[in-house]
Write a structure and sequence with these properties.
Layout (H helix, E strand, L loop, with lengths): L2 H10 L9 E4 L3 H11 L3 E4 L4 H100 L4 H12 L2 H32 L12 H11 L1 H4 L1
Parallel strand pairs: 1-2
Helix pairs in contact: 3-5, 5-6
Length: 229
């Protein structure tokens, strides 16, 4: 193998691709030097050689190689630091966006809870009033039932008895009480959820306060109960 073949082989192998190669030749350096440099040689020395010059040029190439390796390491470190910094910046931006979103959700939840409280209040109040009205109505009907018992053969009361059986009055009277009770329970549950939502969306003023951990757990379980089911 001549020097050109050796250089080509070194350049093909990744392990030796970056090794600096200096040609030493007794041939005419004009054309050969251009060919060698085109193949990747770093220097060209014509014979007869001076050992001191060869040593000096070899030392120069080794120092340059060390400088290139050091620069490559610094570049790799810089790229790694930039990537880490970019990743940290992205994470910080995501956390900031999440914090802003949670703050917006808290404000929205507080507003929604306030708006829901109004209809809950008058629906609950109306249910209480309706319960009182029905108690009055049922007491009046009860008075008529007692009068009916005393006038068994009266035609008007007979018509009322027939209508009562046809419309299943006894069942309606019992079921109305159950419906009102369920409605009051439902309103109470909605009111509790709104109360817990209001507590959850409470915007902190960065002041330490005493808190009841049991109440906090109950409030959290109440809000996420649909997921826990």
């Amino acid at each position: 193998m001549d020097g050109y073949a050796v250089l080509a082989g070194l350049r093909e192998d990744p392990a030796t691709r970056d090794l600096p190669v200096i040609f030493v030749t007794a041939m005419d350096p004009s054309e050969d030097e251009k060919r060698g440099l085109d193949l990747g040689a770093v220097d060209y020395i014509a014979q007869p050689i001076n050992p001191a010059i060869v040593l000096a040029r070899a030392r120069t190439q080794l120092e340059a190689r060390q400088a290139r390796d050091k620069l490559k390491r610094f570049n790799a470190l810089l790229v790694h630091q930039v990537e880490q910094g970019t990743h940290a910046l992205e994470q910080a931006q995501l956390q900031l966006m999440q914090s802003e979103k949670m703050a917006s959700i808290g404000q929205l939840a507080a507003g929604v809870a306030h708006e829901i409280n109004n209809p809950i209040g008058f629906v609950g109040s109306n249910l209480g009033t309706l319960t009182g009205y029905l108690q009055v109505i049922f007491s009046i009907i009860a008075a008529y039932e007692r009068a009916e018992a005393l006038a068994c053969n009266d035609a008007a009361f007979e018509e009322a008895r027939s209508l009562r059986q046809k419309l299943d009055y006894d069942y309606l009277k019992e079921d109305i009480a159950g419906l009102l009770s369920e409605s009051r329970d439902g309103i109470a549950r909605v009111r509790k959820i709104v109360q817990d939502l209001t507590g959850f969306s409470h915007l902190s003023d960065m002041v330490w306060e005493w808190a009841d951990i049991h109440q906090g757990l109950d409030s959290t379980l109440n809000m996420v109960w649909n997921e826990l089911k």
